[in-house]
Amino acid sequence: MCARLWHEDHDTGGFFVALFRHRGDDSQEGVAQAYRSRRALRTSPGWAPSYKRPPTPDANTVVEADASVVSEVENLYGLDLSPYSVWQRGKRLNIAPPLVKQRLFDPEAPTNKGDVWPGGTFHPVRVAHAGLPAFTLKKGSWRSRQEAVYVLAQRFNANIGDIPEAVFVRLLCGWAPLVEEFYDELGMETLPPGAFLFRSRFSWGEEVLSVWIGARVTLMIDLNEQNVLRRKLALPWRDEEGE
After folding, report:
1. Which helix (H) or strand (E) holds 20?
2. 4 falls in which pLDDT band (50, 70, 90)?
3. Cα angle at 57 between 51 and 60, to 5 degrees?
4. CATH code of 227's domain
5. I need a labelling partner for 213 at 20 to 30 A (CA). Which of 27, 189, 199, 242 fits?
6. Of 102, 122, 150, which closes a domain?
7. Could you give the dihedral angle defined by the CA atoms of residues 98, 104, 106 and 107, in that order, rounded to the nearest 10 degrees?
8. 84 and 142 part of one domain
9. 92 and 168 in one domain?
10. How far apart are CA 171 and CA 198, in angstroms?
């Protein structure tokens, strides 16, 4: 393709008019490359799709969790997460069925022009969230999310302790004792600082609480999850206390 420019012979800047003419001998079909269908190119001899580069992941991108992070969480809680696909977005780990990885993440994905997005990325799907929130990194410790406790409760074999039903209810009702007070009252040895789990047995089965061991023993579950447990225990909703 060639171009010819017409302009006055003076240096004033501004706009110019360009006239482009296609030279027919530049292509076998006599059609400019710009007007050829990308889909039609796929039938040309020797054509091969190009691999596009997906966007660089940032702090808000859902990526496959690093094996070292998964191992750290497994060791902390005595878990086996191999039945799940594990995803990370920032400081949050989510668990999902293996099919999320096998069907959405691993395969290559064709573009509408015949090129290919490589496997090992959700792109071109814009995934903002994948799976069930299971763990959150807080002060260097991976704490369990209460939403995932109902799925993983039977799998926890470490970083968890048993407490009486009455103590479970007191913690749920807002008791946040100093750790020394907690040790004295329950006759416990020193607990590891950071994220921890307490388990108690009720008539219908086991319930697990996510807590934080610091200067005090404090709940690490939001209002909605507290209300779910309160409903099971026939306690008033958290926002109805004191009425």
Report:
1. strand 17-21
2. very low
3. 140
4. 2.30.130
5. 242
6. 150
7. 140
8. yes
9. no
10. 10
Same domain, 141 and 88: yes
Task: Quote the number of domains for the chain.
Answer: 3
Lowest mean pLDDT among 26-35, 120-129, 192-201: 26-35
Q: What type of residue is 136?
A: T
- Length reported for the chain: 243
Q: How far apart are CA 50 and CA 38, in angstroms?
A: 12
Q: What is the pTM of this model?
A: 0.72
In a domain, 189, yes or no: yes
Amino acid at 191: L
Domain that holds residue 31: 2-41
Residue 48 lies inside a defined structural domain of this protein: no
In a domain, 57, yes or no: no
Tokens encoding 34: 């710009």
pLDDT value at position 73?
A: 95
| Mean pLDDT value across residues 77-89 | 95
Nearest to 196, CA basis, from 132, 232, 152, 142? 142
C-alpha 89/C-alpha 66 separation (Å) is 11
**Pair of tokens at residue 47:** 């054509």
